[in-house]
Amino acid sequence: MLKLPGLIDPHVHVREPGQTHKENWDTVTQSALAGGVTMLLAMPNTKPPIFDNSTLGMALSAAKSKARCDYAQFIGAGPDNAEAVASIASRSAGLKMYLDSTFGELRLDDMSLWMPHFANFPKDLPIVLHSESRTMAAGILFAAIYDRPVHIAHISLKEEVLLIKAAKERGIKVTCEVCPHHLFLTQDPTGFGNLLGLTPGRKEVRPRLATQKDVDALWENLDVIDCFATDHAPHTLAEKDSENPPPGFPGVETLLPLLLTAVDLRRLTLNDLIQKSVLNPRKIFNLPEQPETWVEVDENAEYEIKASDLHSRCGWSPFEGWKVKGRVTRVVLRGREAFKDGKILVEQGYGKNVRQ
Ligand code: NCD
Ligand code: ZN
Q1: Nearest CA to ligand 1 atom 6
Q2: CATH number of the structural domain spanning residue 321
Q3: How confident is residue 277, by pLDDT bands cut at 50, 70 and 90?
């Protein structure tokens, strides 16, 4: 038996308020606990988006009554809410800025709209950027100009990891995360993690899956990458297989088995796993330690990922049928047995807002 600290997933789309047919605070936190994740940071692109005091209140009250693991909620940057979000920053996980197009209504195209957020948001919390390629370079320039930390969400490209490396070497306050799907899957139709057999809609994700060259560069520069994050983005199968499929993969429950399999294959060390899934996110997002919290894993258990075993409401996984090694057998959260042998044992509302 292997004992790990509870994992932190800093990038999860909970879908509540507004899209609870995809997921909600109950189902997503069950999925997290079953995957060894004891704390998650929730993204603000809900319906309505979380962008001020009253919408933050909506998300937090749903979380308070339903969450089974610990959490904090991001607020979203809009065209005219820089002062409002700065004033409620201490109750949030941080500020999320959507600088490239994706699922949801929050997006800031004009750089003059970025400026008040960079000027006003407290510097003890990072601004998290959804920014790809050259937009990411612009975001890093903003971090340098405003001398404040930024955290780049879900990097996927070789050019991105190389630029972040160069920025870090020059002392710019930039950190970043990578998702399992950008480490294990490619757009290459013949490669290993090629999603053969998935319908086109099920392959849709932002950032898009990249090339083998990009994936190789991420693995080669793993020391530049601060965190693993799932970007758990559940949509139903009916939506994914529709004419207009929304982008996004579920992932919070498959994170640890995939990483443990990479450890088994010597692509990663257990120390890397703990740094990037516990210690670095805790430091970057200024999160408290969770006392008497740990995850027990049967390192030798080999099995296939099956969506029917997962707790997300969305009912599918891009990793369906993948053989993994390492099963979460028990999770203890703040002194209580929260998950054991496939069963969730803590009630809705046990999860704590770590910003309270
Ligand atoms: C996310 C979603 O569905 O909310 N989709 C995705 O493909 N990652 C939005 C996002 O994180 O960009
Ligand atoms: Zn996301």
Answers
A1: 248
A2: 3.20.20.140
A3: very high
